[in-house]
Specification:
It comes from Eragrostis curvula (weeping love grass). The protein has 282 residues and is mostly beta strands. The protein is built from two helices and 18 strands. Helices cover 3% and strands 40% of the residues. The C terminus is likely disordered.
Length: 282
């Protein structure tokens, strides 16, 4: 792995965690991610090429796919060190499997929202890593009429940032969409819901024949952005346009063609300041 600083073109190579390099057959890396450094540097920043951490979630090779340990690489000045954090107290699945080996894992990384990286565990447990402190915490999703089993289809589960900057979670099951929010320090609750088949009636491109079979009416996620998601029905993409759903009002509207996941907006300076080779020709 390499940690890069694009503006300065500096990078630092990181070897695999000791648990992997010493005995690569017992463990595997489930995911890895960059976290702020342990302490502020000279200018008050908590992350830089000499002050950062990389977390490696490790699973047992023959286990159930749930991370049990995090190997932490800490960069401090010109040196570095490895440490480990046990995850057994937070990575706890609340359902038992009847089959030892199943085709789908019991954990799924949902991504980083509002400064925390979320991992979903089968049974309704959500584990959050605070990317500034490196601390883990867990919370519970409420019981629903649908199963929280990751093998369910066409159930899908995603994380997104709300209009207020706080994290939201939403599920799609057939044509129903539910949005969950969390009170400070508490568990998650249903905040909004919408029946998409009803909400999309009358929109340009709507064709009731697309939804004769309920399985064909399963909406799919295309893009997330602050306060909204963009969905489509992939069964007949030429006959059905994409739609956007406002997570605060749950209003549904036609959407532009999908442009991929919106991470952040960036506007390059003009005239360019990074390229000096042809400065005299601009």
């Amino acid at each position: 792995m390499a940690v890069c600083e694009p503006l300065t073109r500096r990078y630092r190579e990181i070897l695999p965690p000791p648990a992997i390099s010493n005995n690569s057959f017992d463990h595997k890396i489930y995911s890895s991610y960059l976290v702020d450094g342990d302490a502020a540097d000279a200018v008050g920043g908590r992350i830089g090429m000499s002050n950062f951490r990389v977390f490696f979630d490790l699973c047992d090779t023959l286990g159930d796919g749930v991370p049990h340990t995090t190997a932490v690489f800490t960069a401090a000045g010109d040196g570095s060190l490895w440490s480990e954090k046990a995850l057994d107290h937070v990575m706890v699945c609340r359902v038992e499997r009847t089959i030892m080996f199943q085709r789908h894992p019991r954990a799924r990384v949902l991504g980083t929202i509002a400064g925390s990286r979320y991992t979903y565990l089968e049974g309704g447990t959500l584990v959050a890593l605070d990317c500034s402190t490196g601390e883990f915490s867990s919370s519970q999703l409420p019981a629903t009429k649908y199963s929280w089993d990751l093998g369910s289809w066409p159930f899908s589960f995603h994380a997104v940032q709300g209009h207020d900057g706080d994290p939201r979670l939403f599920i799609l099951f057939f044509d129903e969409m539910r949005v969950f929010s969390r009170s400070r320090g508490g568990d998650w609750r249903v905040e909004k819901s919408v029946q998409l088949l009803e909400a999309t009636r009358g929109l340009p491109g709507y064709d009731p024949s697309l939804f004769k079979d309920k399985l064909q009416g399963a909406f799919k996620l295309l893009t997330i952005g602050p306060g909204f998601v963009i969905l489509n029905t992939p069964c007949h993409p030429a006959r059905w346009s994409t739609i956007s759903v406002d997570l605060e009002t749950m209003e549904v509207a036609p959407a532009a063609d999908d442009m991929g996941k919106i991470v952040y907006q960036c506007e390059l300076p003009w005239p360019p300041t990074l390229c000096t080779r042809y400065a005299g020709q601009l």
